[in-house]
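S., here's the first fold you wanted:
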Amino acid sequence: MKTDIQIAQETKPVAIYDVAAKLGIDEGDIIPYGKFKAKVDHRLVKKLSDKNDAPVVLVTAISPTPAGEGKTTTSVGLADALQLLGKKPVLALREPSLGPVFGMKGGAAGGGYAQVIPMEDINLHFTGDLHAIGAANNLLAAMVDNHIYHGNAMNLDPRRITWKRCVDMNDRQLRFITDGLGGKVNGTPREDGYDITVASEIMAIFCLATDLADLKARLARIVVGYSFDGKPVTAGDIKAQGAMAALLKDAFDPNLVQTLEHVPALVHGGPFANIAHGCNSVIATKLARKLGDIVVTEAGFGADLGAEKFLDIKCRLADIAPSVIVVVATVRALKHHGGCAKTELGVPNVEYLKAGAENLKRHVENMQKFGAPVCVAINAFPTDSEEEMQFLRDYCADILNVSCALSEVFAKGGAGGKELATDVLGILDKNVKLKFTYSLDKTPLEKIQAICKNIYRADGVIVSKPAQKQLDELTANGFDALPVCIAKTQYSFSDDATLLAAPTNFEMTLRSVRLSAGAGFIVAIMGDIMTMPGLPKKPAAENIDVDENGKISGLF
């Protein structure tokens, strides 16, 4: 059986100018990065302002498991299938982070015969966007400490610096550090720490800004810490926004690549969904809607995380509404949620599947609350039995009252996604009026409680004393009208990763709260979630290599 990277390397891509030409993009609006990838001038959105916006298909999934769900693979294959059905689709996906590429995943550009290429470039440095975001983040950190060193005109309290440094790597050693040691010339000693780049507020701002002016304004609003008298100090106060925007100027143009079947794909931005808001950039989504006649996009991790944030944050701020929501599941993953041992996932067992299907049921019901039509995609594995597949089809029809399509895009590419594409087109609604989980006039805690009770189905929220103090301070400083972005484990509806399927009779613990004033939301950290992941016992990096001719292997 061929690996993902072997399939990708054996596929002959078309020149990036030809991909752009399929969308009617003039050569003057693209900046090539070699033969097979390019930047598209973000200002093209405004040039095309008179064109109608294409409908958006949001692809999300059940709660992730070690068995895999295949959300990106399904998104890519669905776009390929829509092309086979005569549509002019455009993909809008996130950029992979080096953290999971070298950690758990080994690659995040789809799989099998449903991939975006060049997959090695996309999974590694790509066009340098994440490096630019890291540089902008760390420039601000350096300017904050430099401001304190040179007189501290803003009266910043070194004990209350909230801005962290970042690196796009899983490195638990950097979560908590002490820096500024070695005497006065080397700065002010203080406690500090690193986040992974995709959890940085810069990434969130990058993905929510609508143009360079908006980007710079959002950067200026970042709160980096508090003064000795408790007043917020911003990046604008220390005059950092211009230089940060300059570092991000080129990165802000969306990246254009292609699928194995040459469907255009805009791959841009990549915030984690278990920490940040989990969606590709607004500018890429808006551009995709002007260039194609249907857009396929995804939201990270399970629908309780990525999709909720896509709908309650991105759609609200960018005035977007999906015309269809696709929930991806696999027989294997649902059996895992039903209590099946990992070693037995390939053995047919309807009882485990029945128990685990409660996870799918809750996700589908949650998505239906937002007011968009919903369908289910069952991502096929060779070990799936006919009895198990029939159970899921009947379950979706009789219990969930939604269509259910078998997706075989991993093995067959677009041809394996025609059933799903047909279902999507059959229920597509261009006039969806979204119903949000909470209104913005609620208090921050009421918004958090609304998500925990209505989406996670928790009985309530336990608020730690530090979190309550932070909530009170946010309200006192006038930030209480912002939406909320919950950071929690991706493996469960709860904040306990061991509670699988559709847990009940549990409470959520609000451990701390972070303000992302530039991005325009409040981050609620629940349970033991870390904003700097660590590598697993056997990281994917151990299997990645390059030969003397520069050919990369091991990216799955």
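And the second, which I think is the more interesting of the pair:
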Amino acid sequence: MSARHTFFQHAGSTPIIPISAKILTIFITLILLSNFMTNFMSLQLSQRQIINLTNTVLVDRLKELYTNAGSQYQLASFSHDTDAAFKALEVTASRDFTLPNSLAVGIDRSGKILFRACANRNISWPNWNYDAVLTELNDNYNNNIMEGSLRFASPSGEYFGVYKYQKDWNCFLIRAELRKDTQRDTYRVLGIISLVIILLTTGFLGIGVVMFNRLFESIKKINESLYAMQASSRLSLIDISKAPNDDITYLAASFNALSSTINNLLGIFQKFVSKDVVAKAYEEHTIALEGNQRELTILFSDIKGFTYRTETLGNEIIDVLNVHYNRVIHRVHEQNGVIGSIIGDAILAIFGTQKTGTVKSKDAVEAAWEITTVTAELRKKMIGRRSEIEKSRRLTEAEERVFNAVLLDVGVGIDGGNVFYGNIGSEEHMANTVIGDNVNSASRLEGLTRIYHLPVIVSSYIRDETQAETDRYHFYEIDTVQVKGKTEGKHIYFPFDTQRFNEDEEQRYLVFENGLNAYYKGDWSSARTHFLKCGLDVAQLFLDRIGLGQAPEEWSGIWVMATK
């Protein structure tokens, strides 16, 4: 599956947005709002000022039109040509037009248009609804208000301007400008300023990104380390070797100190409890008194002749045990097992508590053979050391006893099934444990390794589960035993490792298997022959058991154990 690209790291399904991005976004947003609002207010004030200035200009131009109207009235009085007078007034007004929709109108009190001039030839004053304007002008006249400002609507938009009553013509002279004409330049300036603001903001944004990236480089490193810790579920130290001496770096240094403390405590905790309990405590941040029925595989390993070794070595037995367990526990962990408990010379390992994708019984069998291998390697090393010493002298009697004491040998018993697995005790002190008949059975199977002279003995549960997964191990039945306290016999097996032993060795177990079948059937004479022929140590036990006699009546093939 290809990796999916994302812009942000995630904590679960929640995206983690960098603080620098948040700060930069807020900063840029506020700057843009501030600039746009300031310029908009400035332009609005400027627009008002423009309107005021325009009104002042209109007043001046209206005065000029008023004066010309009086002059044209005198001329019309002599020539009796009012049309020429009004035409002259249109020409006079048109000379003052500076905007596309400038307007000059003369309208008498009855509403008759005496003259009109407009920079936009498409405007037709009679199409306007001027009744409201005329009403306002007449109302002002009746209130003895002969001049002032006014606003009125048109198809082209809103006009603003000034007016003055001309008594000679008995009309109102109006000089007005279309508002959007005065705003057009304002909006153009606003657009230019906005573009400049955006360009400058974009440039400063790039500079800000670079500066913020440098400023928050230590935060970025902290986040990268935290993301890595989250992915690996392990605490690690943040690299602050090149970080600046600011409060963020101090925060990272404090985190490193806390991380080191937690790692030390976690390491100590990990040495006293099983790995699955450590993992659960790390994920859930708590350990409770709880447990349930689970199907697990139990491995029990014990050192043979431990009493003799303790009497011989004294306190030094601890050093020997530590050397032994250091290798054994490592092998158990390699095979996905956890250490349930260490009881003096015995070790209890549990398989199946973790999701590993492997078969727990197969892992346990492989761990059993690894345990016997590392123990044999330790014996071989001790024998080599003895040979070196004996090149110069013979061992003393005391040294001989010590040598025999350090030649550790172990037996391994494995069984599995439904057991109780969890934490028991109290809120003040608790222990992780496994309880069940199969746990006791694994211990008994380990004890049988001394009787049958075999390094590893397993139950039928282990055989069935392992054979379903691999054909590496050939399980040869050793006996059917009824341990003390039980009413039924139980088949026990030796897991022959085809990768550790050769075909000649396996052939001996095949001969033993034939002898065992004859033994079960009560044909002890044939069984004796096969047991003698195979030459295995385990066969000697059966030879001693059957002697030269015959199978008793009602022989079931089950050997009843007198002790646990």
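Why I say that: Residues 19-79 form the longest helix (61 residues). Residues 1-5 have pLDDT under 50 and may be disordered.

Talk tomorrow,
H.
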